[in-house]
Amino acid sequence: MIKRTLVVGAARSGVAVTELLLSHGEAVLLTDTRSSGIVLKEFPQILDFEKNPEFESIFGVQPSLEILTVIDEVVISPGVPLSIPIIQAAYAQGIPVTGEVEAAYRLTQTPFIAITGTNGKTTTTTLLGEIFKASGRGTYVVGNIGDPITNYVDSATADEVFITEISSFQLETIHTFRPQAAAILNLTPDHLDRHLSMENYVHAKGRIFENQRAEDLLVLNGDDPLVGELGEKAISRKALFSYKKTVDYGAWCLAGKIYINNGQESILVCREDELGIIGPHNTMNALAALTLAYFSGVELEVIVRVLKTFAGVEHRLELVGCFDGVTYINDSKGTNTNATITAVNAVTEPIILLAGGYDKKEDYSELMALVAKRVKQLIVLGVTADDLIKAATAKGFTTITKVDTYEEAVAHAKAVAVSGDTVLLSPACASWDMFDNYEIRGRVFKRLVTENQ
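Predicted structure:
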């Protein structure tokens, strides 16, 4: 009998997993609450799916719970809450609920290296991908970074590798997923609107190693107590990275020099100022990538060459340009307070900060304490604008302008900035109140900055 899978959410991963499952002979029902017109405009390949007699779709409404009587498994897109009725009903009826990561893992022999954490995932994943590519190994940089794993399941071989950024949302729905190597970069409050508590969020992150065996590698931030406490539960081989201390097995940076210890000797890797990415937070990202690559068998010479040439990723402290003496930086990937704190601390010039967006139920008090010390003017917009104003004024900071659109935000920033200032987009919030993703938000910012220059 043909397996019937309900795919909930016609976003990138949902459409990709639908295509994969159909190609493997499964029957798929794809559903999304958006109208068919909107979905098909974004993903016209669904029209090709409709030629397959084993494909059905329900768009524009929540599917009836009765549909579960003919469903063997439910696969959800990462953005779909587990709390919606169809998912809760599936759980109640004992129907497996999983995600694209798990679906891909079951259908491939290609090993995974998985990276999670609150901040730094995209930079570390991209850097690690470049290291593996430079080593000559077939490499796919996939996952939460934007490219679904399922796009490559049928083409990737057992000799190649998936370098995978993986979010807490994706980890919620794994069952057998077992990365050959994994890293937890850091843990600070994020997505509490979905996870409801820090304890739940940390638990979701910890699932990255729950199926690892003793021979697998787990790389941990040696400076983060939460990461250390979580890592104690793992049975895998552990390596640490640190910006504060030497480690017996792993990498560290002290006095401007980066080292790695293989358990037998300490090896000087390079100077911190030779890295292609700047700032202590990026040094930590480089240390994590170094540790993962070195203990996965990549030659140190190759790692060093890439560490020195890798210049970072789009939307993460990305220099847009300098116009009339004013520097513009796109940090749209700063989707939580800790990321924005990192961005503000990385800028030495007077800052005009653009912040605000979708409400993830974070506490803004620590960020606004820093804003009061380091920011010249705060421009807020989005759903959280009033919350940011309240938090800022509680810290005695009142040089704030509230606007409704990014056009207004950038225009005001240009009007008040003087030579020597830095206009920094680092929202401390997700983009979903105004944009489909942070990439679109960042590109809108860059367009508004550079037009008419």
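Summary: The first helix runs from residue 12 to 23.
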